Amino acid sequence: VLNASIQTSITLNFSYCASRVVDHFFCEVPALLKLSCSDTSIYELALSISGVLILMVPLLLIITSYGYVLRAVLNMHSQEARNKAFTTCSSHITVVGLFYGAAVFMYMVPGSYHSPHQDNMLSLFYSLITPTLNPLIYSLRNR
């Protein structure tokens, strides 16, 4: 909440002299920055730094926990149990990768390196596709 409040208050202080049509599915900060005629380079750097804290720290914790899971799975004596655990974990880690990969690219890579069309497609990954895949993964795990 603190991060979103700070980013929103800063974003609202920029001047918008170009088109006020947001070429995005959502009214997100990177899409608004493209409409601004102010110098946003320092703010984009701050956005990347906050992305490290908000995206990379949880991702690092998830990867660390999966490292412990992998070690536990490799210590299992049953090949069948190991295969079942790898199947479940691989689908989970795929969804985590899709979510965090899209979010990292969207928020940590400078806007000049991707187009509005790419931003729209990436936002679909972390807002629509990964939540849709979660029930499917959990139903596969329960079989």
Number of strands: 0
State the order of secondary-structure elements, H for helix, E for strand.
HHHHH
- How many angstroms separate the termini? 38 Å
Amount of beta strand: under 5%
Segments where pLDDT lies below 50 for 5+ residues? none
Please tell me how large the radius of gyration is.
19 Å
- Largest sheet entry: none
Main location: membrane
Domain G-protein coupled receptors family 1 profile: 1-138
Membrane topology: Multi-pass membrane protein
InterPro entries: GPCR_Rhodpsn_7TM, Olfact_rcpt
Gist of the model:
This protein has 143 residues and is mainly α.
Architecture overview:
The chain folds into two domains: about 1-40, no CATH class; about 55-140, no CATH class. Helix content is about 75%, strand content about 0%. It has helices at about 1-10, 30-35, 40-75, 80-110, 115-140. Helix 3 (about 40-75) packs antiparallel against helix 4 and helix 4 runs antiparallel to helix 5 (about 115-140). The longest helix is centred in the middle third of the chain and has 34 residues, at about 40-75. One of its GO terms (biological process) is G protein-coupled receptor signaling pathway. It holds the Pfam family 7tm_4. It is found in: Cell membrane. Keywords: Cell membrane, Membrane, Receptor, Sensory transduction, Transducer, Transmembrane, Transmembrane helix.
